[in-house]
Amino acid sequence: MERIHPRPVSPAIRTRTAREIRSARRPRGHRCWGHLVAAPLWPMHDANLGTLLRTCDAVGACLAAPSLRWVDEALARGDTLRKPTCVHRIGDPLRWLAAERAAGACILGVELADEAVRLADLPVARRRTVMVLGHEASGIPPEALDLLDGAVEIPMIGTGMSLNVAVAGSLVLYKLAGLL
């Protein structure tokens, strides 16, 4: 008869308290981090904006969103944080992207493109980087593609063509922030 050996006892897993978590984070003086900006400039679903806003807070990024009434309402519903997250309201997405690029920001689109860098190969952002997310059905508009400095692609094995905006944006933000 086979003898069953019990698993070795491992030390108990201890979760950190909220105070310990807060004290380990880097301090921020101004609510606008400025280094990373998530820009879902052509949003389709309001739930995705609230999720992306939480990710922006988690990685220290700002959110740039169009000035549409439903977008403001979606952000207000999705912002369950005690302290406000930095949100920039954008009027004309193309004009704003052109101004960011002219000011020296790297404009990176999350898009399926021939020259796209795979997510695993994406380097950490070393300067101001604007991560552009397109419409979930049609992607980044052709006129905005000309304003991109590069594109990042998230490889997929399944049958879907892409992830939703909140998931795709969250993955890329974590990679750009150097947290993955």
TrEMBL record:
This is RNA methyltransferase. Residues 44-174 form the tRNA/rRNA methyltransferase SpoU type domain. Gene3D superfamilies: 3.40.1280.10. It comes from the Bacteria. Pfam families: SpoU_methylase. GO terms for molecular function: RNA binding; RNA methyltransferase activity. It comes from Paractinoplanes rishiriensis. Keywords: Methyltransferase, Transferase. InterPro entries: Alpha/beta_knot_MTases, rRNA_Methyltransferase, SpoU_MeTrfase, tRNA_m1G_MTases_N. One of its GO terms (biological process) is RNA processing.
